Each structure stands twice: as structure tokens, then as C-alpha cells.
Amino acid sequence: MSSGGHGSATDRRLNALFRHLSSSARMDPQQLNSIAASPTSANQNDSVFSHVVRAPEDPILGVTVAYNKDPSQVKLNLGVGAYRTEEGKPLVLNVVRKAEQQLVNDRSRVKEYLPIVGLAEFNKLSAKLILGADSPAIRENRVTTVQCLSGTGSLRVGAEFLARHYHQRTIYIPQPTWGNHPKVFTLAGLSVKSYRYYDPATRGLNFQGLLEDLGSAPAGAIVLLHACAHNPTGVDPTLQQWERIRQLMRSKGLLPFFDSAYQGFASGSLDSDAQSVRMFVADGGECFIAQSYAKNLGLYGERVGALSIVCKTADVAGRVESQVKLVIRPMYSNPPIHGASIVAAILRDRGLFNEWTFELKAMADRIISMRQKLFDALRARGTPGDWSHIIKQIGMFTFTGLNPQQVAFMTKDYHIYMTSDGRISMAGLSSKTVPHLADAIHAAVTRVS
Ligand code: PLA
């Protein structure tokens, strides 16, 4: 804390935290200062926290809170991206059950702390999964991988490292993006700007806007890229477009930070969904990758993920890892053992791995079939508008184009829960519930403008 550089990083973080808290509590800084200056209250029965203002629910996880409170029999939660079966039930993959059984049966396993960077075998196999088994970067020991708390924790640890050790503290995120991105990066001490990504007129990629915005970003800026199945739009660049993005970013020295939360969910293939990342690693340049096993292995609540940092040399990678450990140790000391052990058991065993790829493909295919069913149901009802984006978009979500009033109407009259930006989780839908959703969309579009 005594060095100048470190001190200013701390100040930035505190300022960011202050801005964040004062905006979410809707208080001006003076008000907060006066509260901080008078911690005790005149009345002994008053809590020292009586000034605390109730915060709004999270825009995504709060949808589930509202859904849980609704007593309706026909209610449907299409808010959070969580896979459901055709029966509308959460799914624990068979391969996960098998791996867990193995772990339970192995009496030699103990509950000791993991190292700060987590389970070594898990880290190695996670890097191979995203970069490819034959990746030269792995062979040359230029990649450091640390186990983190799912995708969110990996993003946060990577961002905190960058805020401390990287010369450019601005990160560009797509407009729109996952709602938690700006909060994670701001609180890590980075300054957040956005680049154009989605064009509401075409419901596709605003490629020109993207190139212009990244083209005018300052040299060295960090750029957040969704590796595949962009959330919330379901719109990904083509491979040719990725190549243009790569050339532009490398020519300007922009630093890629990939968020890979859906590997295998976009196409059903783990390798196809990693192509964007592998393209950037193949050119020998540096990049960050946050991986999540929440969706593709259905390990949501186990909080298992990894942060990989691809460096130019093994020597740099080793020093970077030593500093990442200093980020993690005071944050949560070391990561939990169970989820990472499940993943390692599956990735190390060819039989279990193959079984996983089948189950993953089945989940991806079910989501894709829901797209077709919903599209057909709207066509059959003659719902006004072009709904072809439902079948064109990729991954877990459809970005419907419904406005907040139409969403509120669908929740009130049809008990359908979704985020107010009109995003629906296709993974939460089933053949049985498609007609209800199509009725609701039809009514919203024809009755609410
Ligand atoms: N990155 C993206 C792009 C995501 O969509 C999500 C999860 C994460 C990271 C973080 O996932 P993890 O920490 O659980 O690994 N997005 C969900 C859930 C599925 C959420 O908001 O937390 C969503 O409904 O958008």
C-alpha cells in the first residue's frame, strides 16, 4: 500500500466503489459524507444502519425472485439462463452424476485447502479445452490458468489484475452486453466504455459500427469479447468478421479479454465454439479468457470456472501468475474443491468426456428446436412482424425486440417472466409451454405498443 502506483490503484478502486454505491443508493456524495461523519444515532433504538436504502433487485436474478413469489400455475421463468428439460425441470448431467459417484467412492480424497490457483489438473485441462489440445501456447508454457469462482469470478480476478498491472485501464464492452459486465469491471478498478455491436433495425451485428469504435479506441485498450453465443443478443460475428476484428485489434495493440460462458451451447460443438479464441491465440499475441462451466456442464451453483492468461513467453506467464495469486489470496484465499474435481474427472477420462459431448449436444439441439417451435407458433398465429431472428440467433437467448411495456404486460397477464430488455431464455422453454409464450407475444404485439 505504500508505493505510489499501488496507492493510486487503491484510490481508483475506492472512488469506483463510492460512485457505484452512491448511484445505486441514489444519494449524493455529500449526503453519504454526512452519514459517514455521524455513525451514532441520537435515539438508542435506531439502528446504526437506519440510513441504508433498499437496493433494487438484480435485473436478471431479480426476475427469479419475482417468479418465485407468483402463485400462478401457468407461470414461466424465461429470465435467467438456466437449462430446463422438456418437463421444465433443472438438469444434472448423467456424466456429472457419474463423476460425483467416483469422487464419493474414492476414500483417499481429503478436504484440504487447494492452492491459491486451485486444482492443477483442472487448470491444465481447462486451458486445453478452450485453446485446443495441440495449442502451441500451451506447449510453450506461455499460458497461466487459475481456477476461479465460475465465469464471474474469473472476469473479476482478471480485471483486478489488469487494473493493477496493465498500462491501459479502459475496457470496451459491447453495446448491449451481459448486465453484470460493467459492474464487475468498474468495481475491479477499470474504466468502462462501450463499442457498437447490435443493430436493432436488422436485429443483427452492427459490424461497421464495431470496426469504427474499436478503430478509434486508444492504443492498448482492453476489449471484452463474447467468445460465442453473445448475451443478450444471440448475434455472433462470422469467422470472416472475427478475422477482421482480430487484424484491427492486433494492429492497434488492443488487448482481447474473452468471456467464454457458453462453449458448446452455441453450435453443440466445443471446438467450433472456441474458434474465435483460438484465432487470437494462433497469431502468437496475448489475451485473457474467462471460462465458465455453469451452463455447458450444468454446474451453475458449484461456481467452477477458470481464468487463462496467454502471454508471449513462459517467463512472463510465471510472473503474471505470481501476481494473480496476490489478487486472489485476500479476496477468497483459494477456490472450492468439489466442482473443479468433477470437471477434472470428466475432462481427463475419454469415456466420460465423450459422454459429456453427447449430453451437451442434446441440450444445444433442444434449445435450437425451441427456436423453430416458437417461430412456427408465431407464424401460425399471424403475429405481426418478422420473427426470423428467433431462428437466426445463437445460444441460450433470443433478443425478441419486445419493449419494456410489452414485457411488463406479458408478466402481468400471462405470468411469463423475462428481463425487461426483451431477452428470453430459450433453454427455459419446452414444447408444452411454447403455445402459452406465443399467445403472450401475440397479445403483447397486437395490444401494447
Ligand atoms: N458471462 C456471461 C456472458 C454470462 O451470460 C454469464 C451468466 C456469466 C458470464 C457468468 O456466469 P457464471 O458466473 O455463473 O459462470 N449469465 C446468466 C446468469 C446465465 C447471470 O446473470 O448470472 C444470465 O442469465 O445472463
Set down the secondary structure blueprint.
Layout: H1 4-24, H2 29-37, H3 61-69, E1 76-77, H4 94-105, H5 120-131, H6 136-139, E2 143-149, H7 150-165, E3 170-175, H8 181-188, E4 191-196, E5 198-199, E6 204-205, H9 207-215, E7 222-226, H10 239-252, E8 255-260, H11 275-282, E9 287-292, E10 304-310, H12 314-332, H13 338-348, H14 350-381, H15 389-392, E11 397-399, H16 404-414, E12 416-417, E13 423-425, H17 434-447
Parallel strand pairs: 1-12, 3-4, 3-7, 7-8, 8-9
Antiparallel strand pairs: 2-10, 5-6, 9-10, 11-13
Helix pairs in contact: 1-8, 4-13, 4-14, 5-13, 7-8, 7-12, 9-10, 10-11, 13-14, 14-17, 16-17
The chain binds ligand PLA.
Keywords: Aminotransferase, Transferase
Organism: Citrus sinensis (Sweet orange)
Protein name: Aspartate aminotransferase 3
In total, how many beta strands?
13
Rg, rounded, reads 23 Å
**Oligomer state of the chains in this structure:** single chain
Task: Give the spatial strand order of the biggest sheet.
Answer: 2-10-9-8-7-3-4
**What is the string of SSEs from the N terminus onward?**
HHHEHHHEHEHEEEHEHEHEEHHHHEHEEH
Spans with pLDDT under 50 lasting ≥5 residues?
A: 1-6, 24-29
How much helix is in the residues? Answer: 40-55%
| Bound ligands | ligand PLA
Q: Report the sheet-strand fraction.
A: 5-15%
Shape: globular
**Distance linking N and C termini:** 55 Å
Largest sheet, described in full?
A: 7 strands, mixed
Average pLDDT over all residues? 92
Structural class: alpha/beta
| Structure annotation, total helices | 17
